[in-house]
Structures are given as structure tokens and as C-alpha cells.
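User: Batch of two.

Assistant: Item 1 of 2:
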Amino acid sequence: MQVNVSMQNLPPYMIACSETQERFTWICPPEFTKALLKIYNEDFELPQISIGAGAFVIGKVTKSQDYILRHNGKIVCNAPIKAVTQGIKYERAKKAPKRNFKEPNLKEPNDYSKALLEILKHPNVASKAKAYKHYDTSVMGNAIIESGYADAGLIKAADNSAFGVALKTDCNPRYCRIDPYWGAVNAVAESMRNVAAVGAIPSALTDCLNYGNPEKPEAFYDFYEGVRGIADAARNLHYKGTKYPVPVISGNVSFYNESASGNSIDPSPIIGCIGVLKDYSRAITMKIKKENSALFLIGERKDELGGSVYYDVNNEIGAVVPITDFEKERNMVYAVIDAINAGLLLSCHDISDGGLAAAISEMILGGDADGEIGAEINLDFTNLRSDKALFSETSGFVFEVEGKNLEKLRTLFKFYKINLIELGKTAGKNLAITKNNKKIINLPISKLKETWTTGFVEALE
């Protein structure tokens, strides 16, 4: 039994503790060991790739409660496994930092078309095709929905199987700058919405937690609140059909992210959500599919623009971030999943960066920005000022429905106690938005495309 090395005479502590990358450990039944070694060493020829590369049997699982390492026949480590696995617990001081955020007193835009174009050009909203298509997105040929075409990517789980696996990562550090707890909750909720928007059930979470110096009480407070937010969201949004949390199955933490002057980055709990779809042929994308179909909204618009793109393009940050109502959020997610799997929706998109207006624009364009069907939208469903209704990032979904499915859809959403708001219809070659019989936005698809496809590229340059 041996651990493979690429250099001779390495001391045992170095072999045991090295963080060399590209390592993978299997625990497998003895009867599978021979087949496993063949896969790595013969089928994939690892020993031919690099000195010391390959798959090797390095030890065995025992019933004893000890962790034993041998080197050249001598025991160099013999420790109780609890001492190795239970981890180190710190009791660190935490202190809420002073946060003096205020809502800005912005005047209503004179030109709503210009305001929308500024948002679509913002690098957080603009098409990321430049990044998505830099690398071959069809490796292994198992992609059902590639990056950029829907709220989540989707792959086949296995050959000769109808199961699909969806994946999306999310976080808005500007929310977390204002409120680290609700920023973390929003990251979990948005990742779940994105997975649901293709028809998959959010099934597991992972995280990458990026924070400042935990030895500073204010930075540790932000971390504490972020972890609390993730846990509360996982517990309260539930695995569909149960009262169990959506499990956080893995993750990592990156601390001490600050400048030389000691200024910390915005708290950034990046959340990844994996979803499972029993039949990937049911999955849908965000792109509008037909003319004269109905467009619906779920998730009432609220005056929650703190950390929004709209405030950012106006050089503001705000104070009121979206607050997640856990019951309504999970009911929206469940209803959308059921509607997609029942074949009741043609397209679906969640509302996040840029708000309702950005979501509809992206549905018109589609992942390749080649959409040719516009939309006619009426804002009379809300009493909010038009800029807040259009650009608030309060959670919700927009989806497209054929007339023949409306009755079934209304019944389904009534079951989940979700208010269906009719926005308008798909029609024409423009995005036309009306409030109180006055057209406040009227943009041709070509202008939406020009702006949306250049913002991210120009930001890179």
C-alpha cells in the first residue's frame, strides 16, 4: 500500500499534509478495486501522463476509532479520529458595524426607454455570451440547456436516462453590503428560483463564502449573519414535498479578503444550487416562443431597490433590500416547477438583476439575442411609481402561456395561493410598456439587442 509521489525522499508529514491539487480519494468495496484501478491506469493511462501519476490502493477502512499512517513500515501517526474530524472551534467576538444607508430621493426618469437601456448595458445584466462561449460549452455532449439560454444550465444525468441536473450560482454583494443576513437569504432564494425556472426541483446547495478578516469583530459579524441567512433560507424554503431543509452538502470559506489599507470586500456568500428534473425533455428556457401568447407575473412588485442595478446606474446604493417571505417564495418555486412539468408554460424567467423590465427584455432576446417577438406590457396592476415597478428586484417570475392552458394554470396557482398578475402579451417587434394609457417605453428589439450584447464586452475592455 502506498501514496504515489512525484519526488523521492519526501518526509511523511509532507506527503500527508500537502495540498497538491488533482487528488481524488475513493472508498470502494474490495470487489470493485481491481476494476477501479483498471479504469484509471489502463483505460485512461494515468501512469503515462506524468511521473508518479496513477491510481493506487493506499489503505483500508477499519472498525477501530483510530487514524493511523505508516511510512516505510513505521507508524508516524496514530490519533483518535475525533481529534482529526471534529475541527477547531473559535469563540470570536462579533460586533454589528455601523451601517448608515439611506434610500435616495431620485426623481422619476423623464425617459424610461433610456433608463432601461442603461440597465441592460450594466455588466451585471448584459449578456455574458462573451464569457460563456470563450470555452467549448458542449464538452461530453450532455448539455440540454447551455449557459445563457435559461436561468440555469441543464445536463443529462446519464446516458439512457431521462433525468436532468440543473445548476446555477448566485449572489449580490451589494445586498450584503446593506444587510449581510438578507443578502445571504436572497442568494439562496435566487439560486433556487433559477433552478426552478427550467423545471428542476432545488435539491442541494453549496457555497463559497468570501469575507474579510474574521479577527475583526465587524467582519466576523457579517460572516455570522451570512451563515445564519443561508441556514434560515435552507430550512424555510424546504425540499419540495417535505418539511426538510434543502441540504448544504459542501462549501468553502475564504477570509482575509481586504485591501492593503484594511478595507474589506463586500460580504459575498456565493450560493450554488443543484436541481433535479425527472424528465429533461420538459425543461424550458427564457426565450419567448410564440406571438399572441399571454405574459404573467408572480411576485408583487415592492419598493425594495436597495442594492439594485437601477440605483447603481444612478450612483446610489439604497437601504431597503428585497425581503424574502419564505412561505410565498417556496410556493412560487413549487408552482413554477409544477407548471413547467405539466407543460403549461412556454418560457419562464425569474426577476433579479435589473428587475421586471430587464427580465422581459431578456425573454424577448433569448440567449443568442436573436429573438424576433416583442411584448406589450401594461403596468396598471400596481400603484408603485413606474421606475420602482419596472426596476425593483423583489423576487418573482415572468412566464409565457398559451390561451389553451390558462384555466389549468389559474387552478394550479390558486392551489399554491399565488396571485397571477397578467402583464400583457407577446406581439410585434418592440418592447412596449404602458401605464395609465401612456406609453412610457417603446424600444425596437434591435435596440435592446445592441445594448444588451455590448455592455459586458465593453466592461471587459
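Item 2 of 2:
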Amino acid sequence: MTTDKNLTVHYAAFTHSGKLYQQNQDALLLAGTVQQKAGFWQGQFSLNSRLRFAVADGAGGLPSAAKASRLLLQELMSLDQTQPALLPRQRVIPLHHRLVKACQSQRALHNAGSTLITAEIAVDGQIILWHAGDSRGYHYGFQGLRHLTDDHTLAYCLSRFGNHTKAHLQALANTDMGQALDNLFIFSQDAEEPFIGLQRLKLLPGELLLLVSDGVTLYLSDDALAACLTGTDLIANVRQIYEEVMVAGAEDNLSAVLIAMN
């Protein structure tokens, strides 16, 4: 009988700049390694210490978007090492302070911003999923695909009231005000730290946790995403997501991390 101490985490992931951008503004954190160059990865870890996986998406239209996403993940990883006992909501303020310090020493980062979705996996297999922004988390199981996160953009929040047309929301999302009011990690001493959404879960054998940037959800519906996850080969599944988005246009950076446990 498998016990918690023998749990193994399996993952597959990719990131890519898409068809329009020369520079990838997405970045991945894969259990201690930050990746931003286009590529595919897969691997497994025996769950004898806490693991973290994450997707960060630098905010387009703000300065140094690619560097912002990469540095956010590097600072998150460094915070894990220096203050490992912090709970998720306890990490937000010190992480924000690290970003403020970075922009004070690197002026090109001033007012840069990035989304973040991250999965902390404890040695007993419990997962804490937390996020700020519009990168998404999904659970895939025997009953299909289930949303674990909300979109934290201003346009999405307003859409829930039902008083705005889709065209108006899109126009608002592209304005300076709309971007300024999105819930992000911002490299500025004048910005407040973001609020985070938080979920707890544990994967059963055969279930999956999927983290994606909005470059994926822009093109793939829930049904299309679910169709990419029906096989048991994780790297084949993420390649299917990549191929579907590329065929559909891929006008944004696109990233995915797929996690299973047994």
C-alpha cells in the first residue's frame, strides 16, 4: 500500500513566446529552477521535501515585462529558502518588499508588473494553490475540468456585474487605468501588495493540476483544455495544449505546468 512518505510528483511543462513576441514575458518555476527560454520539460520528484511550481506572466504594456516575471519567481524561490515557514498570505508582503527593493536598484523595473500562480506541495501531498492576476489553475479529475482560480483583472471583475458589453470591457482592459487597477505584483514603492486567491487540494491517482498563463486561456475553452488532458502521458498532454494554441493563433506568450501525483 502506498503511504504519504512514498508519494511521487510527476510534472510536464512548456513556455513559449508565441507568434508575435520576440521576447517571452512568461516564466516558469519548476521545483527550484526558473525557466524562461522556449522549451518543454518533464520530470519527477520523490516527495521528501516541499516543492513549488509556478507560472508568472509579465504585464504587457508595463516596463520590463520579461524581467519582471523572471525576477518575481527568483525572489519567491529566495523567500522560500530564507523564510520557509511562512504561510501563503504571509509571503505577500515580504515578496512585495523584495520587488520594491529590486526596482530601487534597477530603474528599468520601476512600475513593472507580473501575475503569479503557484502550487506549494507539502510532503504529505497537500497542495496550497495561490495566485494574483489572470493566470489560471484547474483541477482535472473523473468529473472533468474544474476552475480553481478567478481572473483578477479589472475587466473580469466588472464583467461579473453584467452591466458592460464585451467590447467595452476589452477597451477598458487596454487602457492605462484598466491595467493600473489589475491585481498584480507591481515593482513600485507606491503600489500596494496584491490580494491573493487561495485553494487547498490533494490529488488522487489519475487526477491532474494544471497551471496556465492567459496566453492559453485566450484561445482554448474549458472543453478544449479538457480534451488535451485525457491521456496519461503528461508531456504528450502539454504538447497537445501547445499545438492547439499555436494553431489557433498564439498572439500572446503561452505557458503550462501539469502536475500529477501517486
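The chain has a mean pLDDT of 89.
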